Amino acid sequence: SKIPTVSSLYRATSLRQTTTERTPVQSLNDIVSAVRYDITKLEVDCIVNAANSSLLGGGGVDGAIHSAAGRQLTRECATLDGCEVGDAKITSAYHLPCKKVIHTVGPIYFTESAKDPERPESLLRSCYRRSLEVAVENEMKSIAFAAISTGVYGYPSKWAALAATDEVRKFLELPENKNKLERVIFCIFEVKDEIAYERALPWVLRFF
Ligand code: ADP
To answer: Residue with the nearest Cα to atom 23 of ligand 1?
Structure first.
């Protein structure tokens, strides 16, 4: 059934649940969840890093991922020739508990919106879509996203959460993506994003 039950909605939107165990999932609503946690500690197949276009490491979640993974990650990233805004590239995870890291480059909100008000959202959606495509190409079954662009890149959390959740929904609903991903986790770090996802997830899940 496509109609979410109250309990499945609650499970999917509870931010305090621990989501590291790999449970088999039956319905679309059991696939998507959000958790407030340190992404470098998640035992999922892959995590998505909010990188910058050089891929050489930075602050925020990028810095946390590079320091937890070790120097080898930075070395592998240096061979990738950077990454365009809205695109995604995959590497090994080295000392991290996940198997792979997908590096995506989010839009710098004010720079892109000055060019065209629609650009930040289309680029942010592209980050989520490209990351999911790369994950599926690499046979990943579970994926955890950092809240791309919502840190120093200045994307308002509320709008970022709506775009992120809706783009994931669109991807999972494509017939060719059925049964590819078993788990998609929005890994939140700060209260502002927790509030944003608490609102965005039930809204978007209504349309599953
Ligand atoms: P960007 O440059 O794309 O804005 P930032 O790293 O500045 O990237 O921020 C992206 C998001 O990552 C922010 O919402 C921030 O709260 C979050 N973040 C920072 N450290 C971690 C971490 N260890 N685990 C998960 N998320 C984190």
So the answer is: 38
- What is the predicted ipTM? 0.98
Q: What are phi and psi of 111, to 5 degrees?
A: -65, -45
pTM: 0.88
Alpha-carbon distance values, 53 to 27, 44, 80, 113, 196 (Å): 36, 24, 11, 18, 26
* Ligand 1 centroid, distance to 4 Cα (angstroms): 30
Nearest residue (by CA) to ligand 1, atom 15, is: 151
**Where are any strands of DSSP class E within 31-94?**
32-36, 46-51, 88-92
Of 106, 105, 103, nearest to 120 by C-alpha is: 106
Question: Are the C-beta atoms of 98 and 90 separated by less than 8 Å?
Answer: no
Mean pLDDT by 10 residues, the chain (208 residues): 41 43 40 88 95 95 98 98 98 97 98 97 98 98 96 97 94 91 91 89 66
Q: Write the residue with the smallest CA distance to atom 21 of ligand 1.
A: 61
Rounded Cα distance, 38 and 47, in Å? 11
Q: How close is the Cα of 205 to the center of ligand 1, in Å?
A: 24
87 within 8 A of 104, measured Cβ to Cβ: yes
What is the helix (H) or strand (E) element at residue 144, kind and residue range? strand 142-146
